[in-house]
């Protein structure tokens, strides 16, 4: 598949290069020994294999191999190319690289996140409720690197119909049901972009900022993200996860880094994916990604889901949107994206079994997809972060 034009470079981890190479190789070995990868198989009732759900619950992540075929990957790539063409030309810009009003300037939110090449903008700061406790090593940017590189596109369903169709994937939604129950709710969606030799890191963190002290906290309280890989991902450009850490409550990441003597924390493993693989990662797992010094681009289409009881009535927000109460009306309005996604998908893939999303049963005609992405403008203002 032709790669969209991502900025190109490759560099090294500087003085830490040899240690990093060893760390990656050891992490890959551990990842392969975990027994948490394989195809996404459903039974005749459309339900996933309980052993796979168990492997996800044991380790906190799972790699579904070969979920997306060449057609779907081409659709996603085409949309990505268009998003990159129409994105703000650089941080803070209202115009794209051609001088046209940039994508998103007609909406409320600033959905395009830029970082300095190979930098870690979050580690050790109070941003996002201070969950990125420690700064990552920042390799030196290569000569001629741009000032800023695009790292994340939030609210991405409003910019990409292919991402919307992916969001309605029947097998993945069946898995969401198996983990979170039939009335599962959205969390948020994003496209993560790690430009070769330039992409910044995402400091080790656990996603959640609510419920940590809740006596009912369990391994599924904060839901999960699906992470669909356009070009695959490696130990150099992909996400790393600390297996089992979703069941350890709030983890003191500072001590993990202190014990390791660096940001190469012990026991973590990389997600290793081919193009079209879709990982599922528990939001409570300690996870993060290193600066992408490799020559390989990584593009991940993220979309997450929660248990309804984890979000209903919760007052939350404050990371990508305003703090508010997540009442039943907000949850329902935000969940309309799932209903549209299921319909958009069934139009593109009529041979697939359509996922029956229980909260919208009988309302299929009201949520027919007519191909107009503007109905989703600013939908992510209602994201359900916890
Ligand atoms: O994909 C990445 O590098 C970071 C993703 C992440 O931290 C998240 O989805 O919470």
Task: Describe the model.
- With 386 residues, the protein is α+β, with helices and mostly antiparallel strands.
- The chain has a single domain, classed as q2cbj1_9rhob like domain (Jelly Rolls, Sandwich), CATH 2.60.120.620.
- 26% of the residues lie in helices and 16% in strands.
- The strands form 3 sheets. It has an 8-stranded mixed sheet. A 4-stranded antiparallel sheet has the order 6-11-8-9.
- Strand 1, helix 2 and strand 2 form a beta-alpha-beta unit.
- The two termini are 37 Å apart.
- The mean pLDDT is 96.
- Bound molecules: 2-oxoglutaric acid.
- 2-oxoglutaric acid (AKG) binds next to strand 11 and strand 12.
What's the short version?
This protein is an alpha+beta fold and about 375 residues long. About 25% of the residues lie in helices and about 15% in strands.
SSE blueprint and pairings:
Blueprint: H1 17-33, E1 37-38, H2 50-59, E2 61-64, H3 70-86, E3 112-115, H4 127-130, E4 149-154, H5 161-167, H6 170-180, E5 185-194, E6 202-205, E7 224-229, E8 239-241, H7 253-260, E9 269-270, E10 278-282, E11 287-289, E12 298-306, H8 308-311, E13 315-316, E14 324-325, H9 328-348
Parallel strand pairs: 1-2
Antiparallel strand pairs: 2-10, 3-4, 4-5, 5-12, 6-11, 7-10, 7-12, 8-9, 8-11, 13-14
Helix pairs in contact: 3-5, 5-9
The protein binds 2-oxoglutaric acid.
The site of 2-oxoglutaric acid has 9 residues, from strand 11 and strand 12.
